[in-house]
Design goal:
With 268 residues, the chain is α/β, with parallel strands linked by helices. It has 4 helices and 27 strands.
Length: 268
Amino acid sequence: MNNLNSGYCQDELRISKDENTQKTELQAALTDTRRSPLQKYQALAVGSTSFLTLLKYEVLTTLLGPLPGALGFFLRKIFYKSLFGHVGRGTIFGKSLTIRHPHKIFIGNNVVIDDYAVLDAKGSDNQGIILGDNVMIGRNTVISCKNGNITIGDNTNIAMNCFIQSGKQVTIGKNVLFAAYCYAIGGGDHEFERTDIPIIAQGQVVRGITIEDNCWLGAAVKVLDGVAIARDSIIGAGAVVTKSISPFNIAVGIPAKVIKHRNITDEN
């Protein structure tokens, strides 16, 4: 099933007939007794059963991944390109990155990915992660797919310790500012109407998130699944966005409410 065409992330639920238990997709993959530990690792980290692909991934991430200083930047700039689906010119990779399913990660020109960031494009039938030109990904920031897709437009700046996750589609436009500790969770709401079975067995509702061009999210903003933030909007620090925001608005609070409309000048 292709999650891009469904409102429900049904692939997240796997029922093990042997154990008669309900598991998420990740749990099922990691506890599958039919796979060896190496096969589980390949499925989770590399996304390929090819031994040569695994060998290249291990050599590059083990030897060059933690290498500090200018030498580390230089060697990763040269050799990391072979891991990814595409890497543009001038891209800088920080040290100790966590990279999963790199063949489904496509990176534009002059992108900067700071130390300890996570680029995780895992999924069975998703397209993965697309980063536009001049994108900056801050230290410790996590960009993670759960069989979904994440697209980040040109000139967008994602600060440190942010978390962006997609079970379907998360689209972030051009010239967007994410302050530190922002969360955009495009998937993760669980069904819970039934009480005769655990919540983990009831599946997830996945709608997706859209943040249009020129928006600014203050520190520690939370954007929930199903929300669209229209162009040139500002979300105040600490806000929790539970409903969509119209263009050129300023919203604050929990839940976020519009408090002001920005004047639209002739230049806009």
